Amino acid sequence: MTTELQRSGVSATLARAKGARRAALIGYLPVGYPDVDTSIEAMVTMVRAGVDVVEIGVPYTDPLMDGPIIQTAATGALAAGVRVRDVFRAAEAVAGAGASCEVMTYWNPVLRYGVDAFARDLASSGGSGLITPDLVPDEAADWIAASDAHGLDRVFLIAPSSTPERLVTTTAACRGFVYAASLMGVTGARSSVGSAAAELVRRAREVTDTPLCVGLGVSTGEQAHEVAGFADGVIVGSALVATLVQAPDNRAGLIALAAKATELAEGVRQ
Amino acid sequence: MTEQPTTQAAPPLGRFGAYGGRYVPEALVAALEELDEHRTKAMADPAFLGELAELHRSYTGRPSIITPVRRFGDEHCGGAQVVLKREDLNHTGSHKINNVLGQALLTKRMGKTRVIAETGAGQHGVATATAAALMGLDCTVYMGRVDTERQALNVARMRLLGAEVVPVDHGSRTLKDAVNEAFRDWVANVEHTHYVLGTVTGPYPFPEMVRDFHRIIGVEARAQLLDEFGRLPDAVLACVGGGSNAMGIFHRFIDDAGVRLIGLEGGGDGPASGRHASRFSGEATPGVLHGAFTYVLQDDEGQTIESHSVSAGLDYPSVGPEHAYLRDSGRADYYPITDHEAMTAFEALSRTEGILPAIESAHALAGAMKIGRELGPDALLLVSLSGRGDKDVHTAAKWFGLLDERDSDV
Ligand SMILES: Cc1ncc(COP(=O)(O)O)c(C=O)c1O
Question: What is the ipTM of this complex?
Answer without folding.
Answer: 0.95
